[in-house]
Amino acid sequence: MKKLKRSGRLVDMTNFLLQHPHELISLGYFTERYESAKSSVSEDLTIIKEIFETQGVGALRTVAGASGGVQYVPKVEKSTAELFVDGLCEKLENKERLLPGGYLYMMDILGRPRTMNEVGKMFASVFADRQIDAIVTVAMKGIPLGYAIGTYLDVPVSIVRRDHRVTEGSTVSINYVSGSSRRIQTMSLARRSLPEGSNVLVVDDFMKAGGTVSGMIELLQEFRANVAGIGVLVEAEGAGERLVDDYVSIARVEEVNEKTKNIRVVPGNFLTKLEKERSR
After folding, report:
1. What is an example of a GO molecular function annotated in this UniProt entry (predicted)?
2. Which of 171, 203, 204, 237 meets the CB 3.0–4.6 Å disulfide criterion with 254?
3. Which one, of 98, 103, 96, 145, lies nearest residue 124 by Cα?
4. Do the beta carbons of residue 265 and residue 249 sit within 8 Å?
């Protein structure tokens, strides 16, 4: 890269940091990249840090020592999160979403990259300090959510499936009880997809009683994994006894009336959890 003026360095450095969340980048990398002195790079990072924090983009952490450097940690402002959550609740209340059995159509939300990116950043903001090694989610609708969060936490995504695939090699399978239907179902995870002892964030797109999430937690015990957190895009109220209780949800469905086609959706516990994490 050719030598840049400060304005050019600031633009390029900001773009680089935004594309590499949670990655520890040495100052030496930037000095070589821009052919600049460490003092100049440090001054640039101070400017970027101030802008990130005042604009609610995130935090810029400095790690001292020979193996240290700088790390961009995505964060979301409470006011920004409130606007997004309110907008999501409004979309979910559209009566055209109602499907037979009281289910809600959500693929337009899960299939929109910009929306999933916002959700991913929100969850990454809550779980930023949990030392997560991997995301675990269930196919198929949990995949876009899992990858969105994994992008902002800079961790791989492992996909739990309900059927075995030859291309994934040997798998670990368990039988679990579905929370809502109380049926016995099977889920499996490829042995090579998750190292033993990993700190895992379990995510799901929709949770009623929590049977699927509970099943994933049970499956992870076979990998001696530690569940560092649970993230749910939408939870349903009044689904009977919950099988999981410590989770973060963006929205909560309080009522679905198939006869009147009335859907009432309110914010989940995300905003409360966000405040609690920041007060630690």
Report:
1. DNA binding
2. 237
3. 145
4. no
Would the pLDDT of 129 be above 70?
yes
- What does the pLDDT average to over 178-191? 84
Over 70: is that where the pLDDT of 202 sits? yes
Per-residue model confidence as pLDDT tens digits over 31-45: 999 999 999 999 999
Which residue from 148, 161, 145, 170 is spatially nearest to 219, judged by alpha carbons? 161
Question: At the topology level of CATH, where does 6-74 sit?
Answer: Arc Repressor Mutant, subunit A (1.10.10)
**Helix ranges, the chain (H):** 6-19, 27-34, 38-54, 78-92, 107-110, 113-126, 142-153, 211-221, 270-278
Measured in degrees and rounded to the nearest 5, phi and psi for residue 172 equal: -110, 125
Residue with tokens 């935004």: 18
